[in-house]
Design a protein that fits this description.
Blueprint: H1 3-30, H2 48-53, H3 60-76, H4 85-109, H5 111-114, H6 132-150, H7 155-177, H8 181-189, H9 192-200, H10 205-229
Helix pairs in contact: 1-10, 3-4, 3-9, 3-10, 4-6, 4-7, 7-8, 7-9, 8-10, 9-10
Length: 237
Amino acid sequence: MSVLSFTSALLLSRCRLAECMLKSLSRLSSSSPSQLPRWFNLVPKSCHPYMELARLDKPIGTWLVYLPSTWSIALAANPGCLPDFGMLALFGVGALFMRGAGCTINDMMDRDIDAGVYRTKDRPIARGAVSMLNALKFLGFQLSGALLVLLQLNPESIFIGSCCLGLVFTYPLFKRFTYWPQLMLGATLNWGALLGYTAANSFTFSICVPLYLAGVCQTVLYDSIYSFQELPSTGAF
């Protein structure tokens, strides 16, 4: 396969992935804020607000965190071999914890704003279902889980993974003073592109950085479109 054919196939696959993401995000934005999946009934109702806080009812965000790491881990596999499934599973758990932690931080910082916006007024902290103290405890639990996952990796990966915390904590603030929060979102969501290859092999600039930048550009693209799609549901009341 020529380089041009491979590039075309890669671009086509990314376009299809972005299209699927946009459809999922569009469905989420058009649904009722209080609508919860049926499987929530399998756990006590007292846990529901925390599950909402971690966005377990909206798994698309976890996929957006997880997928860049899968691409990176797959690139680290030997030619003709499948990627390390144990590593993929480990990163899946890590993505679940970190996505939940990011959403918790976002809701803690934006609680006053969320309460005045139709799309976000029913979020657990904004509606008073979870106190700030309990949200902080829940955040500690999620970060502890993510740390346990990170400690299973090599030292180089632990360092790179730790560097992501700054982005996770500051992303909500960028929405307040820049017109390009999508860029910071992309930088945060795609950190797994740097981490996955490093964990499965070792950090290689010529592989990790281009993959990371491609993921950032893709995030800016689909999140910009999504932002326009959700405009009708973000009006203050």
